[in-house]
Amino acid sequence: MAEETIFSKIIRKEIPADVVYQDDLVTAFRDINPRAPSHVLIIPNKLIPTTNDVEAEDELVMGRLFTVAKKIAIEEGIAQDGYRLIVNCNPHGGQEVYHIHMHLVGGRPLGPMLLS
């Protein structure tokens, strides 16, 4: 079983966060260290450590990450100009918290995907 993370405590409201959306499958909250004017983390309420741990039974929740991202992008006013969705996996991918999460970032031009 995966270890509990800080995100698990945010889901249960044991620690404060600026939650912008929550339902039975996912929770979304503002990143405490935003990289763009809009920077929201969207996470499954079920603890799935990395994308390598996603199973067929997780397809509904993984799809919900995308539909919630669209909803939030519209609410944030960034859907028309565009935004980026980022999911990091393991150390080389830049993952810091081992509870799968999608970064929704936008509100300004974001530049190239990767730096050389």
From TrEMBL:
Active site: 101
All copies of domain HIT, residue ranges: 6-115
Listed InterPro entries: Histidine_triad_CS, Histidine_triad_HIT, HIT-like, HIT-like_sf
Motif (Histidine triad motif): 99-103
Pfam short name (any one): HIT
GO terms of molecular function: catalytic activity
Protein name as annotated: Purine nucleoside phosphoramidase
Organism the protein comes from: Aliivibrio finisterrensis
